[in-house]
Amino acid sequence: MVIFNLFLAWFLTSFSIGRTIVDVAAAGFNELVNVAYTGIAFALPSMVNVKQMDWFVQVLLPILMIVPLFDILTYIGVLPWVIKWLGRGLSKLTGQPRFESFFAVEMMFLGNTEALAVSSLQLKQMKAQRNLTIAMMSMSCVTASIVGSYTQMMPAEFILTAIPINVINALIVTSMLNPVYVPDEEDTIATMGGSAATEAGDADENGKKEPFFSFLGDSILGAGRLVLIIAANVIAFVALAALIDKVLGWITPWLSLEHILGVVMFPFAWLMGLPVDDAFQFAQYMGEKLVTNEFVVMGKVTKTIATAAFSEHYRAVLTVFVTSFANFSTVGMIIGAFKGLVDKEKNNVIAANVGYMLISGILVSLLSAAMVGVFVW
After folding, report:
1. Which region among 83-87, 294-298, 319-323 has the lowest average model confidence (pLDDT)?
2. Is 33 in contact with 145 (CB distance < 8 Å)?
3. What is the domain range of residue 217?
4. Considering the chain, what percentage of its residues have pLDDT values greater than 90?
5. How many domains does the chain divide into?
């Protein structure tokens, strides 16, 4: 996987055709999200037809359309078939189970909460440690609807390069941090006729599917419940991080989570091949991105990123590092998503490993930035 990802980094940074392929895929997923906005605009036109949509509307409300759509594909058997064969092909390349390999691609543009939501049947079937792997991988995704905004603020070629590189690195990192042996009999794809569907109430004990519109209604209601759970968790996590910053500020005005993480990240920034001054500034950007989000950092550098203030190497590694959802608020999103999708036992395993989730997101971003940086000087 490391060799493949290095090749991918070289191909995407050196040849425009590679970036075009990724761009086309992103555009396809973006169209799917835009269809969701049509439904949202019907009910809430004042919240969609604006210059900048609120995060709740832009990121969470599309779940109300995307989840039922993928549930329909599961109901009629299309999605399990795609996962089975695409996952099998990816599994040969990555050496990982079929669903984990497929999920890596699924989250590449669909986003963490959406990808988790449409995979609910599979998550119910898998054991807790495999669910933890999925949670850790979810720290390194992006959402198709946001890719366009990214490319308006940072160099597009590095944004589009980072997205597929993050996918393979997420598999590499999670297989090291959370190695799970999956025997052949457990490397299966959930279907509407399987045990997971029966336990979820989507099929009776004989494996017979419930009536379509009853199933669809439950899917829509489940998506709505999931949106509220995720929103509540994100609000709480962001507020708690702000409270910690305020308490640290009482000790000394310059002390904050961003600065602490910036100091911790400095050695890794220096190992990227940056001069000490640039490495220190890069580390501060890294800390700020982890505590807030990627848009905060992008907004700070968008006017200067294309100027001589940044070397080509610095420009590449910074852009790639910030192109993911790896931050504290994403932890809240993922925990909230799992709380609405799996039983308490599996959710507790994920909640007990928040540190691994953060480390996974950070390591994937660092690996991706380093791999791209090797070819851009």
Report:
1. 83-87
2. yes
3. 2-373
4. 20
5. 1
